Amino acid sequence: MEKDKHITNKTFVLTAVLGSLLIMAMVIANTLWSTKQIASATDEAVSAVSTFYLEEMADRRAKIITNMINGTFESMERALDYIDREKVKTQEELRETIGRINSLLTLKRFALADRDNIVYTQYTTYTGASRHAFLSAEKLQDRIISDVSFYGSSRQLCLVVPARDLSVMGKSVKACFVQLDIDDIVDLLAFEDQSRTFFGLYSGSGVNLSGTELGPVISDRNILEAAKDVVSEDVWKKTCEDFENGEEGSMRFSSGGAEEDLCYVPVKGTGWEIAALTRDSVIKDQIRDISDKNLETSRNQMIFSLVCVLLLGVVLLAQLSMLSKRKLEKEKETSRSFRNMANKDSLTGVRNRHAYYENEASINQQIQENSLQKLAVVVCDINGLKYVNDNIGHSAGDQLIKDACSLICEYFNHGAVFRVGGDEFAVLLQGTGYDTMMETVDRFNRKAEANIREGRVVVSIGYSVLEPGDQYLHDVFERADQMMYERKKELKEMGAHSR
Amino acid sequence: MSIVLNQSQNEDVEMCKRAKIKKTYMVVLTSVFLCTACLRTVFAQTSAESEDSVRSAVDFEHELDSYEPLKNHYNFYFTYKTVHPWWDAVALGMEEAQRQFLDRGITITYEYMAPDVASAEDQRSRLLAAQEKGFDVIGVDVADEKIISPVLDEMVESGTKVMTFSSSDAEEGCRRLAYVGNTHNYQDGADLTEALCEKLQYRGKIAILVGTAGAPCHEDRARGARETIEKYQDMEITATEYDMDSVDLAYDLTMKILKDCPDLDGIICCNMSNPVGAARAVTEAGSSAVIVGMDHDEEALRYLKDGVIYCLGVQDCYSIGFDTIQVAVKIADGNLPGELFPEKTDEITTVVYQKDAARVLDLLYGDI
Question: How far is B53 from B57, CA to CA, in rounded Å?
């Protein structure tokens, strides 16, 4: 049974350890697999994200321009109303009025053009037919948005609003217009991320209007001419068509070993395209940064979980160990208790006949091995137990037995006392008990004799020592028992009850 | 006679030969290296000079001089021959000067007017009308020196401050106060023609296209062209036509000239519209006539880039405009030519060829 219990504990511990290791291995493997999957998914996502990101970048800039254009058009309409209300009579009044418009409506270089194509600004009046292409039309119907290339490399965005039924100084006004420096527009588009992404503003023919560099390959060149060298003919043709028709699109090409993504979106109403470009590595780095942070967090969580599992396992194992130890001790205690119960006389508390037999077997073996030199047996018998039981009752008999046992134990305190029968005790003496046996026997006998006179418990004893030729303890016991009977007779003669 | 050499002598001879070969190699290599270095230096210098020359053809980086104007507001009137991009370029220089004065707190207002078709009579009436409006200074790009110069004299006589500007001054002796612009129109015509003659190896039939009849700058260039051609006996002027500063007319006239003279060898163009019309016609007619001409029209520069036009004389219109306003302010304050400004402020003309065309286009129009 002991062996079975040991195996069970070992199996349990082994299972627990192996289970923990398996869980840890699974967690680690799962983390590594997840890491690989995330890296792979990141790469796949980069290209898609690049496109979305660039489209967003380009679109935001396109909207800024569109909003600016729409806002300017609204201001120009208000300016025309204002001029109409002012009823301008002279050129000086007109210049002052235009000055107020420039200031109040924050319109830069607001100008009017009359039916003779004379242009009026805050400071100048000039004949403008050759300078402003839109004036070649006899009458203007709709708003006009056009980019103008000026002598001196200056590129401007010209916004024209036709004037209806407006006259100044007695001459009907054909239109008002403003010319916005494209450099100013480009300043509006400059976001904080210029170190990571590039953008450029292009005409429908690919001419770089913003003068910005669109990465190292396109640089500040005509985007269509530059792209011709780095993309396939089909992609290039499609890009040219997109630019011509004001469509959006994208390109992808390699430069210096890195992939570059380029998206372009039309700027509504202008015939322009806004292009944004970024290197794959930029997006990849950003996503990888995020991914690395997530992975690190995940890794830390995993390590933390493992440590927790490990600690929990250790605690559980320790608790289990303590539990089983306690259980074992309890079982041992119970076993000891049962054994005590089996070997103890319930009335007197000394060892019983069963215990005597156990000792006898062991002593017999020692006698036969000749390893035991000093052994004496004292056999004790209570005088008058039957008499007490019969005449006073069993309770008194039991008390007599207890008293007798106490007496025996008191005198033979260096020996092992056994109740071997109802009124019979045996004392095994070894060591000091053996050496002092005779003295003890004398003192006991005198006590017994005194007890007869005092009416107390009387115990007859006989004794014998191990002698050469004795094979068993029983041989010694028999001689002691014989002697006890002799003593019983003597005590009877002294007045003690024999039974 | 036979010479017998011993072993030691043979070795000496062999060593001498090797030393000579080594020397020869060294000399050749050094020479090649030096020649290459010289060529590279020369090429680099030439290239740099060409680049510098193109970059300085038009000066867009102007700053007002240290003159402190006496008033806070000036009002000018300028009139020129005809509505044309050439004068629009001049206008940009004027506007820059006006902005810089404004930054100093001085307001300059002005009218900058011209008729759709060049006309000395129209110019005279504009000048007289302007005289009535009390402008601080009246500036004019003379349409016809014979007609306009007396008008200017009368205006000066009556106390009006008058100056001339851009490319056509009044005739010699006119009392206008100052002139800002091209002072070498004759030489420009002569230089372009000389380049053409050299290209044609001093023989061939030549046509001359002029702008507005009577316009001093156009006439002077045409005269410079004629007198240069006359120097070479194998060269002949087959036609001289005036396009009145119209590209379309220049085209029509060139087509007519080519029809009349299919083996025409060269065309000298004396204004801005001439070379554009001529190049269109030459291209369409498939003629091999060599074109030389004036100014910076974008289309003309593209023809130059494509080799249809041989060379163009590019005037610095921006500087003309800028300096005109600066001088006008000084004149308005009662100053006369002298230390503050010369009686004639000369602006440069740069002859550019096909190899420079892209750079000029980039400089002027930001596109190559």
Answer: 6
